[in-house]
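queue> pop job 88
queue> type: inverse folding (structure -> sequence)
queue> payload:
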């Protein structure tokens, strides 16, 4: 059994002569605005309003920029203006080597992510727990800790006894 598959699904159907329904409605709205302006304003002002409304209606009906119709571009522009914006911080290029470090540069370096090698080295040989990850907890009352060991509390709340390595 064979079925006919639609070929041009992105093309709108022509309903009113050579115009799609959407194009016809844009031009009809411009004509309606011109019709109302004829009875409300003087002739010279009616002609000016009609020229502006027909220009805008023709642009809405037929104008495309980069393959996008004008109503879609206008919708995107208004949604950009009204929706909250997400600003993503981008790191600035680092200063050239040999320049003295200023306090601003030192502050920036404090908040940068450490390299994996340094983090692993800190985990293996540091005397103090890594900040923001583990906290030293005093031993539970009644328990004696062996020399060279410490109780660490992880961010998950888990307590663990770890051996201190002093080089």
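queue> result:
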């Amino acid at each position: 059994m064979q079925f006919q598959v639609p070929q041009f699904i992105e093309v709108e159907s022509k309903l009113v002569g050579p115009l799609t329904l959407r194009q016809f409605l844009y031009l009809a709205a411009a004509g309606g605005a011109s019709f109302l302006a004829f009875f409300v304003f003087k002739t010279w002002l009616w002609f000016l309003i009609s020229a502006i409304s027909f220009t805008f209606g023709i642009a809405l009906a037929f104008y495309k920029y980069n393959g996008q119709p004008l109503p879609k571009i206008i919708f995107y522009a208004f949604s950009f203006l009204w929706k909250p914006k997400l600003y993503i911080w981008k790191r600035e290029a680092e200063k050239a080597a040999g320049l003295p470090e200023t306090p601003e540069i030192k502050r920036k370096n404090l908040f940068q992510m450490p390299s994996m090698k340094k983090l692993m080295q800190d985990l293996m040989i540091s005397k103090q727990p890594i900040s923001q990850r583990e906290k030293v907890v005093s031993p539970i009352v009644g328990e004696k800790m062996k020399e060279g060991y410490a109780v660490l509390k992880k961010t998950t709340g888990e307590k663990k006894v770890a051996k201190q390595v002093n080089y």
